[in-house]
Specification:
Elements (H helix, E strand, L loop, with lengths): L3 H6 L11 E4 L9 E4 L4 E6 L3 E6 L2 E2 L7 E10 L7 H6 L1 H4 L17 E7 L2 E8 L10 E3 L3 E2 L2 H10 L5 E4 L1
Parallel strand pairs: 2-11, 5-9, 8-10
Antiparallel strand pairs: 1-4, 2-3, 3-4, 6-7, 6-11, 7-8
């Protein structure tokens, strides 16, 4: 990996238990969907024949994780980021300085890739995205989004087309 992803994560060794792996899943899940299990800090990219790729994720802190069914309507490499008005209102000491946005790369909170979750044509401001802080995965850490290790979100991004159904359980 080169560029900002490497510089932001080069000292972090991903523990074996956080590495993606193929797992068996329940028959009721259709192939080519994303399912997030917040209790397990896991995102599943479903495959044919009752299999899925399981990725470890960070999720929204208490009260900020929103379950529901969504569609990916936009994907971005090294996305720019702007905190929401609610984030700025809650924690101005952290987010106000970024109110006009932050370009992609480096320490941008969206990391290497972002998958934008929509309901119909409406952007929900929920994302599945990378992070420059991989050590925060497998915990309740975000403002509501699903956070992944950069190398893992790059892999998922390459597999998932726009229009993919996403279920946050």
């Amino acid at each position: 990996m080169a560029g900002p992803a490497f510089s932001a994560t080069s000292t972090y060794q991903v523990p074996n238990h956080l590495q993606p792996r193929i797992v068996d899943i329940r028959d009721r899940f259709r192939p080519n969907e994303i399912h997030v299990d917040p209790g397990q800090f896991a995102l599943y990219w479903t495959l044919p024949d009752g299999k899925a790729i399981r990725y470890s994720v960070g999720i929204g802190t208490a009260g900020r994780y929103k379950s529901g069914t969504f569609r990916i309507r936009r994907k971005a490499e090294w996305p720019s980021w702007t905190p929401t008005k609610a984030m700025i209102r809650r924690e101005p000491h952290i987010y106000a300085k970024h109110a006009s946005g932050m370009k992609g790369g480096g320490m941008n909170p969206l990391g290497a890739r972002a998958l934008y979750l929509y309901r119909g044509d409406r952007d929900t401001y929920l994302r599945i995205h990378g992070t420059p802080k991989p050590q925060t995965v497998a915990a309740r850490v975000s403002n509501g989004c699903v956070r992944m290790i950069n190398a893992h979100v790059i892999d998922l991004y390459d597999r998932v087309p726009n229009g993919t159904r996403v279920v946050l359980h």
